[in-house]
Amino acid sequence: MRRFFPCLPSLMIHVFSFHDTYYLYDTGSGSLHLCDEKTARYFSGEPVTLTEEELAQIAELERQGLLNAPETQARPIKSNEMKALCLHVSHDCNLRCRYCFADEGAYHSVREVMNFQTAKAAIDFLLEQSGKRRVLEVDFFGGEPLMNLDVVKKTVYYAKEEGAKRGKKFLFTTTTNGLLLDDETIRFFNEEMENVVLSLDGRKEIHDAVRKTVNGRGSFDAVIEKVKKFVRARGDKHYYVRGTFTAKNLDFSKDVLFLADNGFDSISLEPVVTEIPDLQIKEEHLPAIAKEYETLCEEYVRREAEGKGFLFFHFQIDLEGGPCLAKRVSACGAGNEYFSVVPNGDIYPCHQFAGDKDFRMGNVFEGKIDPVLRAKFASSCLFTRKKCGDCFAKFICSGGCSANNYHYCGDIDEPYPMTCAMMKKRIECAMHVLAERKAREKTQKN
Question: Rounded to 10 degrees, what is the CA torsion of 422, 425, 431, 436?
C-alpha cells in the first residue's frame, strides 16, 4: 500500500475507487492512500484477512497519525471585521436566462441600477467596518454589471483612492455574460479586475436553449468571439468561464471539453439550482451525473498527462497546503464577513438572499448591520451542520452553501442532499486527479 500526501486533522476512513484504482481517505488527518482491492475491502468491513506485513503497514500509518486519526479540535475562525461586498450595480440584464436565480436580473422587484452615491456609501461602509484588515474585496454583480459600467469604473477608482489613504488594498471581481464586452471594457478589466467570471454554458445548442436575449434568440453567437477575445487579452491574470448544466445536458462533460477546446483554460460548470421542471436536477439524475464526472475526470487526467491540461474548478483540491482547518470548519463568511448590497443600498447576507425581506440586514446609509441576523450567520459553521458529522467530505466542503441549504431545506445549517451527493463525487474525482498528478511527478523525478 502506497501513501499519498498527509494533511488536514473521527475515526472515519472513506473507501472509494476510480475504476480499478482503490483509495482510502482518512478524514481525521486528510491523508489519501492508494491501496489494493483487498485492503479496500478490509476497510469496507468485509471479512478479508490481511497478512502480517499488511497489518504492520496499517499500524505504522496509524502510529504516524495518517490513518484512523482523531477528530480535529480546530475551532472556527470568526471575525466581526468585514472583508468583502458584492455590489449589485445592476438589477437588470440584457439576457433572459431561463434558470436565473435572480429572476432574469430583476430579483423579483423593479429593474434598476445602482447610482454612484450608493456605491460610494457601500465602499465607505466596507472601509469603516473592515477593522485591521488590509485586503478588501468587491464583486460587481447583477443582473448584468456592464449595463452600469460607468458606476463600476467610478467605484473602482474611488475605492482605490480611499483605500490607499487607510493603507488598504482592494481586489475587484466582475461577473458578466460578455454581451457588452468591447475593447475599452477589456482594457479596463485587465487593468483593474483581479478576477473576471464570464458566463458561457458550453456547446451552442446547450447555451442557446436557456441563455436567450430579450427578443428570445440564443446568445451564443453574440458572445463567443467576445469572450475569446477577452481571454486572449487576459494573459496570466485570473478569469473563469463559468457555465451551468441542467437536466437537459446531463452529458455536460462534452460542454466542459468544448470550452477547453475553444481555448478556455479556467473553467467551472455548476449544477443548476432551480425548480423549473424540465431543467431541475432530480435525485433520479444523480447516477448519470456521477458517471459523467468520471468521464470528465478520465479525459482531464489524460489531457494533463499529455501536457494539454486545463483547470476545472471542481477538480482542484489541495490536501497539503490548502486553507487551514480553522478556516475549513468556519464555513462560508456570508452574513458575517461578506455581504451583498442591492441598488437601493439594502444589505443582505449574500447575492442569493438578495430581495428576501426576512434577510434584510440593514442599509449602507444606516451604517450598521442587524446584530441578530449577523449573530445567526456568525454562529453557523461545520459543527452546527449536524448532518455533516459523518461525512468524509466535511473538512473540504465545510457544509455547503447557506443559501441553498435555506432555500431547499429551510435552514442554513441543513445541508441540501442533492448538492451533497454531487459534491462528494466531485471530491472523489479531484482526489484521483491529485493522486495521478503526484504519481506522474514522482515518475518524472526518477
Answer: -120
For residues 32-56, average pLDDT: 92
Q: Which three cell numbers stand for residue 70?
A: 482523531
Q: How far apart are CA 306 and CA 304, in angstroms?
A: 5
Q: Is the peptide bond before 143 cis (omega within 30 degrees of 0)?
A: yes
Q: What is the largest CA-CA distance in the chain?
A: 73
- Sign of the four-CA dihedral 308, 310, 312, 317: positive
AA letter at 314:
H
Neighbours of 414 (CB within 10 A): 17
For 33, the enclosing helix (H) or strand (E) is strand 31-35
Q: How far apart are CA 336 and CA 67, in angstroms?
A: 35
Cα–Cα distances in angstroms (integers) from residue 435 to residues 253, 312, 351, 428, in the given order: 21, 16, 36, 11
**What's the CA gap between 81 and 336, in Å, rounded?**
8
Find the mean pLDDT for residues 158-183. 98
Give the burial string for 182-217 (b: 16+ CB within 10 Å, else e): eeebbebbeebbebbbbbbbbbeebbbbbbbbeeee
Query: What number of helices (H) and strands (E) belong to the chain?
Result: 14, 17
Task: Place 4 in a pLDDT band, splitting at 50, 70 and 90.
Answer: very low
Helix locations, 65-176, DSSP H: 116-129, 149-165
DSSP annotation string for 92-111 = --SB--TT-TTTTTTTTS--
| Radius of gyration of the chain measured on its C-alpha atoms | 23
pLDDT for res 71: 74
The residue whose grid cell reads 463525487 is 425
What integer pLDDT is reported at residue 105 of this predicted model?
61
Q: Which three cell numbers stand for residue 243?
A: 457555465
Cell digits of residue 63 = 502510529
Spatial separation of the C-alpha atoms in residues 402 and 381, rounded to whole Å: 10
3-state secondary structure of 224: helix
Q: At what angle do helices 220-234 and 183-192 cross, to 10 degrees?
A: 40
pLDDT above 90: percentage of residues in the chain: 81
CA 227 – CA 222 distance, rounded (Å): 10
Count the neighbouring beta carbons within 10 Å of the beta carbon of residue 317.
16
- Tell me: pLDDT of 441 over 50: yes
Predicted confidence (pLDDT) per residue in 334-392, tens digit: 999 999 999 999 999 999 999 999 999 999 999 899 999 999 999 998 889 999 988 99
pTM of the complete model beyond 0.90: yes
Distance CA 357, CA 352 (A): 12
